[in-house]
Structures are given as C-alpha cells and as structure tokens.
Specification:
By secondary structure, the protein is of the alpha/beta class. The strands form four sheets. The chain has a seven-stranded mixed beta sheet with strand order 2-1-7-3-6-5-4. It has a four-stranded antiparallel beta sheet with strand order 12-13-11-15.
Length: 591
C-alpha cells in the first residue's frame, strides 16, 4: 500500500486499512461496511461504482475487497488500474498481458472462453485517472467489454466525472465520512510509537476538532494531518496548509539513522522555494494533460519544458525525477512507469500555480476552465483554490455562475402554466439550470435488439435521444428513472459548464446553494408520453398538470437548488468589492 506518510516503505494494507462504509446514492439507501467480502454487495448488484472526492479511500476499498474476494466462490479477481489503458491498449489486451506468465504465452481463445463463462470479478480502479485525450476511447472500450462479458462481476471506482453517466446500469455508492472515533483510530494506526498520534488527539480534543471537522472526515487528509503534525507539532486548519506542511516535511526529511542533523542532499540542487516553484508548474502542466502516470522519457520531457519556462532555476530533469522518488518522495515508480504519489498532490501544486504563478492571467485561465466545462474535472484543484485565493475564485467563477443562473431564472418558464402551482414552477427554474434532459420509454425488446446488434451506449443515445437535443448539445449519458414489466423509463443528460461547479459550491456550505433531494413523485403519468426533451414550452406533454411534479422529481436526482434572491445579493456584493488596483492606488497616495 503506497502512502505519502510512509513514502517508499513497505506497508501492508491489512495493517493500515480502516473499514469504511459505502452508502447507496439513491433509494433504497443501502449501507455496507467494507470489512469483509459481502455476498449482498457486489454479487447482489453485479455492477457497482464507488464515487467520491479525492482521498476518501476509493482505491483502498477496491484493494481491500480484492484481497477479501480471494478464496470466495464468486470468481477470480482481476485488478485493473484504468489509467494504464489507452486508445492503443484496450482492456482485453491489458487482461491478457496481466495473465501471461513470463516464460510462455497465454492462450487468448482460452481467455475469451473463461470471460464468457462469467467466473471473474473485475476491480476497475481510477476511471478519473484515465488520460483526458484517451477518455472517450477508453470509456467506449470498457463499456463494450462489460456488455460482452456481462455474466462477470464489476466494481468501478472514480472521482465524480460527467463521463460516469455512461455507466448508467451500475449501482452507485459513495463513502460515508469518517466519524470522530474512526479518525482517531486511523491516526493511531499510522503511528507505531503512538507518541505523535496521542499528542495530536489530545490537542484536537482540547478544542480544535470542531475547527477541523470538515477535514477530519477524509482518510487521506487525516493521514496528511498526522504527517504534518509529526514534522511540526502545530495543527493546520486548511487543506492547502496540510499539503504545504507535508511538502516541507518531505523536503526536510532526515535519516534518523544518521543522527538528527543529517539531511539528504537534493540531486537537483534546488532549495525548498525553488523546488516548490518547479512543482507548481509541473502540477498544473500534468493536470492539464490529464495524466498522473508517465514513461520516463515522457516525464523528463515535461520537466524539460518546465525548466525552460522557469529559466532562472537550473536543474536536470533526471536529477529532479530522482529527488521525487527518494529525497522528496512525491512520486512512485511502478515498473517502468512514474506516477504522482496521489492525484491530490498533483491537484495541490496545480492550485498553487493558479493562485501564485498565473496571477496575471488568472481571470482568463479560470474562465477557460469554466467555459470549457472542466470544473468537475478540476474540482479538487478549484476546491483548494477556493481557500487559497477566495477573492479570485469569487470574482471569476462564483460571479460567472451566478450571472448565468440569474439569466436562466429570469428567462425560463415565464409563460403561463395553467393548473401548475408557482412553487413547482419556481423549483423547475432552479432544477433545470446547468442541465438539459430528455426522457422516454424504451421497451425491453428494443434494449435486447440493441444488445444483440452490438450497440454501444453511444449508439443508444444516437438512436433514441440525439434528435431531441438542440443543435450543438450532445447527450452525455443515460440514467434509469423507473421500470415496468416490459419497459424502462430512461433519461439522457447533457451537463452545461455551470453544472461542474455546483457540487463544489454545495460542499462549501454556501447557504443558498444545495443539492436537491431526489425524493417523491409518481412516474405513472410519464409512461405514455413518448420521448421528449424537458423544456419550458407549455404545450410539451411533460408540462401537463398531471406530469409537472413527476418531471420535477426526476430533475431532483441530478439538479441543484439556488435561492434567487440570495444569488442576486451575492453577485451585487462581488461586483461592489473594491478593485485591488484602486486599493493599491489609495495606499500609494501621499507616500
């Protein structure tokens, strides 16, 4: 088990793993403690996806369940890190490569026979870590593989991604936040002597736990807190301070066997500030590429470009890479590949690059992230930027979203809707912001026909929904709404740029932005309405009095609620904030 806390030391998952609980995102609200292999979890649902934010333990759960599945009667476990797939390396080739012994070939026909028999459990880790340029090809390939190997069991792990809508037949679970007791247990597991853990727990108990409550629910951040506190016995209160203290600890890490004064010499000859500057550029560059793992020539080439952009800092790429594996272990080497120790470390440095190095171009950069629909992809980066440079975040991203929302609210559902209450119309205006949804019945016969003809989900979207969407708006995935004995009521969703930012704002506890609760509503009235786009046309079948509330209940599963009055007040306050340049001019006056 690789951890930033222990660097390249060998640690067993059995010694560090704290059983986590996963919770279903929709009804019924199942919960499962991941302490053993449970027959009522993966074997029961057949296809499971675990989604959550950075550091919540998705990969750790998959590794633990992989070990627990050994010896069960449900199948042969195969663990695949999806970041190793690409348009040139499909999943079937990767499986064949993993099964091939070193001294003889493995019969590919035999592999296909075994896959058809349905005797495997596939653990597919890190969907969000697939390179951005290969994401579409890998998604299509994995979907096709799952469809053709349908009798096997599948469990997928990923951060939230819009592309996950493509796996609409997977049962989605998130990870339950750590309780106070669990966080303390985890701290103790990271400390063999218990000296630092007990001192930290005592300090937290004294008064500081509540101040850190939002961070203590995350296993990764709990481990970073331990690392930071071990280096400097001072409790950091913000996520980015965690990472900075961890970086300082790793950079100044001394070899205890050499005596307290020994500090490992850096091969790159960079001091701590120069190293941090280089890592900021490297973090943003690699985050933009959308990869965390690289061949040696590739990562050295990226580092060479970083060096050229920062020509006042001299270092050799290979020397820097050596430092990142040994003296400042922010990277791991796996076979011939080099990867960030954790994607959140890459995110930290990328957020620091935006806040510090790209300050002059921050507005243009953040607007490009927003307009390009990349907010969800860069969610953890923006999360840390929100705390590091809150003024810049508010002036660019929050202001842009609020402007778009107010415009949407004031122009949608303005015509009369006889028989519909004003509260339902108000809710519809809120729920339709940031998303375009079509819905309709698809019979079991049509689904069987699609499957028999080898259609991918993209083909289903093309066949049943594409023509309903406005020009230039492409449906991105299918989700199940309801089912009868013979038919399925399904939806097709397109997320606009604003939708990627809304989960982050809701998690930041903005009082006027919240995730809608997907509850209530009978879908019976929708079953005979055919396939339609949800619009503000009063003549649409979906806007009939008997359908309006049911459509709202569908939108609640994916939408957000924003109080329009508070949105207007917040935007006004942002626009009235004193510009930094005028503030500086005031300070310089009469100097």
């Amino acid at each position: 088990m690789n951890t930033i806390v222990f660097g390249n030391q060998q640690k067993r998952i059995q010694d560090l793993y704290l059983p986590l609980t996963v919770c279903a995102t929709g009804p019924p609200k199942n919960e499962f403690l991941m302490d053993i292999w449970r027959n009522d979890f993966v074997p029961s649902f057949k296809r499971v996806v675990i989604t959550d934010t950075a550091g919540m333990g998705k990969s750790t759960i998959l590794k633990w369940l992989f070990l627990c599945s050994l010896g069960t009667s449900h199948g042969i476990p195969i663990f695949i890190e999806l970041r190793t797939l690409s348009s040139k390396k499909p999943i079937l080739e990767k499986i064949h490569e993993e099964l091939c012994p070193i001294d003889k070939p493995f019969d590919k026909d035999l592999l296909l026979y075994l896959l058809k028999s349905g005797r495997f459990i596939f653990f597919l880790d890190g969907f969000d870590e697939v390179s951005y340029e290969d994401r579409a090809a890998v998604t299509e390939d994995v979907q096709t593989f799952i469809r053709k190997a349908l009798d096997n069991l599948f469990i997928l792990a990923s951060r939230h991604e819009s592309a996950l809508g493509s796996f609409g037949d997977f049962r989605e679970f998130t990870i339950k936040p750590l309780s106070k007791k669990e966080a303390y247990t985890l701290l103790r597991r990271y400390d063999e002597t218990q000296e630092h853990a007990e001192a930290l727990i005592a300090e937290l108990e004294a008064s500081k736990y509540e101040q850190l409550k939002d961070l203590m629910v995350n296993p990764m951040l709990v481990s970073l807190l331990f690392k930071a506190y071990s280096y400097k016995p001072k409790v950091p209160f913000k996520k980015q301070i965690f990472y900075r203290q961890v970086f300082d600890a790793l950079f100044d890490m001394h070899d205890s066997t050499k005596g307290g004064a020994f500090v490992r010499k850096k091969n790159s000859n960079l001091d701590i500030d120069e190293f941090h500057m280089v890592m900021r550029d490297l973090g943003f560059t690699t985050a933009k590429i959308g990869k965390i793992e690289y061949a040696k020539d590739e990562i050295c080439d990226i580092m060479q470009k970083v060096r050229e952009r920062n020509n006042t800092i001299l270092f050799q790429p290979q020397a820097l890479l050596s430092d990142l594996l040994t003296t400042v272990p922010l990277f791991n080497k796996e076979g011939e590949q080099f990867k960030w120790a954790h994607k959140s470390v890459q995110d930290y440095f990328a957020s620091q690059f935006i806040a510090i190095d790209a300050k002059a171009n921050e507005v243009a950069l953040l607007e490009k992230i927003y307009d390009g629909g990349h907010c969800r992809r860069f969610e953890n980066i923006l999360d840390m930027l929100h705390d590091t440079d809150n003024k810049g975040f508010r002036r660019v991203l929050l202001a842009r979203l609020l402007k778009d929302y107010i415009k949407h609210y004031e122009t949608q559902y303005t015509l009369p809707f006889p028989g519909i209450s004003s509260s339902l119309i108000k809710e519809r205006r809120q729920l339709t912001f940031g998303q375009v949804i079509a819905m309709g019945m698809v019979s079991d016969k049509e689904i069987v026909l699609c499957s028999s003809q080898g259609w991918t989900q993209a083909s289903v979207l093309e066949k049943f929904f594409r023509k309903l969407f406005p020009k230039g708006v492409k449906p991105q995935g299918i989700f199940m709404i309801a089912a009868t004995k013979e038919s399925n009521l399904i939806g097709a969703l397109h997320a606009r740029p604003a939708m990627g930012l809304l989960p982050l704002l809701a998690s930041k506890k903005y009082s006027y932005i919240s995730k809608a609760k997907g509850e209530g509503g009978s879908f019976r009235a929708l079953l005979s309405k055919g396939r339609n786009l949800i619009t503000d046309d009063p003549m649409s079948p979906l806007n009939a009095p008997e359908c309006f509330e049911a459509v709202n209940s569908v939108l609640r599963h994916t939408g957000f609620l924003i109080d329009i009055d508070q949105a207007r007040r917040t935007l006004k306050s942002i626009e009235e904030e004193v510009d930094e340049s005028s503030h500086v001019e005031e300070l310089l006056e009469n100097l």
